[in-house]
Design a protein that fits this description.
The chain has five helices and eight strands; from the N terminus they run βαβαββββαβαβα. By secondary structure, it is an alpha/beta fold.
Length: 211
Amino acid sequence: SRQLRKAVTFSDSFGPFGEHAVNASWVAVQELKKLGLGRDVDLYVYEVPVEYQAVQSLVPSLWKQYHPQLVVHVGLSGMATTVTLEKCGHNYGYKGLDNCSFCPDSQCCVEGGPECIDSVIDMDSVCKKVAASGLGVAVSMSKDAGRYLCDYTYYTSLYLSRGRSAFVHVPPLDKPYGAEALGRALQAIVQEMLQLLVQAEEKIHCQHAHS
């Protein structure tokens, strides 16, 4: 099969924060790391602190280091009851203080950047495919990643990658899904996203070959 370029999966948050003693996003990504994404995909996992300034430095450095085909950020949502695919990231409205009691003076990710950036991934298609796969994990979609570090990280990554990023919110552990179920869901989601990218690239190559 065709060799895929490197795929990097981040956990958008890690360790306890707020009222969450255990961050389900990091636990889920660790399960994904155990499962892997198949022989054709190099998977790299990183912890991204719940800090605006850390995101500003770390996310660009990882893109520069790996030049990945896709980055999938994973974060915890205390309100979620499903695994949620975020369609877009937002540039403005960051008023919440991070773990260092800091927020950007501009309250935005990229000054002068567009208000919203959509992922190039067809989240509707991913959601339908994974929901029909029989994993036993409910998957839904959202257009609002929350205007906190999850949204901030997502927009930053989308801006750098021109849309070649994705964000997945997971619910707290055992509310209702355990670590293994979340890991399997992430595996199915990321594999489907990568397949969509490969198909899109093959279509472009075919069009160029016949032009």
